[in-house]
Amino acid sequence: MSFTVRAITLDLDDTLWPFAPIGARIDQVLHEWMLEHSPATAAMYPVAAMRELRERSFRDHPHLHHDLSALRRLTLREALEKSSASLDLLEPAYEAFYAARNQVEYYPDALDGLARIARRVPVAALSNGNADLQRVGIAHHFAFQLGAREHGAAKPEASIFLAACSRLDCDPGHVLHVGDHVEMDVAGAARAGLRSCWINREARGWEHAEIVPDLQFTTLTALADWLDANLTDRDFAQDHTRDHAA
């Protein structure tokens, strides 16, 4: 399949790096931090109990599902309050969490594939998560980062996709959204009028009843190869002329 791609929006968690190891590390780092700074909190909320509290906060505050940082702070506040700890510990505890959250281990293909893609077309990070690309160290590959928290709504809402297209100065039909999640990434992008690329690292079968991705690859390397084969020199020149004029 060949079509015009003038820009890419790119998911982060489970597209550039797996999130599960990050989540496990966060749990352990926070517990060790509490052991040092608030032993009573650590005793009342060991790893499993803190995880349960976080999941309950998520269920009880659906209006904050676009703001994972606010939900994390709510969890930490409740744990500190119920263990009679000082709320002065809230922001230091959050910073311990956030430092661990931004320690990522990339998929083997991710960095090289991202660099190749970013040399071809403007790339915007589009994520429901709260990773900070400056802290992670790859912000230089991106035109900008748009998170659900900053936008006020999360994928698969059409508005976040369309806001990214507007900032990229591209029609949605000329923007390719790339991500791992069937509903949040592929279906959400398609409903908003973008092209969609499913990064299917486990080579699963496609199961969505109504929507199919425009592209499907197991790695970002394969997407970079597709762009090399299908993006013409004329497209490349137009994109970069616009970038320099902006």
TrEMBL record:
Keywords: Hydrolase. InterPro entries: HAD-like_sf, HAD-SF_hydro_IA, HAD_sf, S-2-haloacid_dehalogenase. One of its GO terms (molecular function) is hydrolase activity. The keyword Hydrolase applies. Pfam families: Hydrolase. This is HAD family hydrolase. It comes from Pseudoxanthomonas suwonensis.
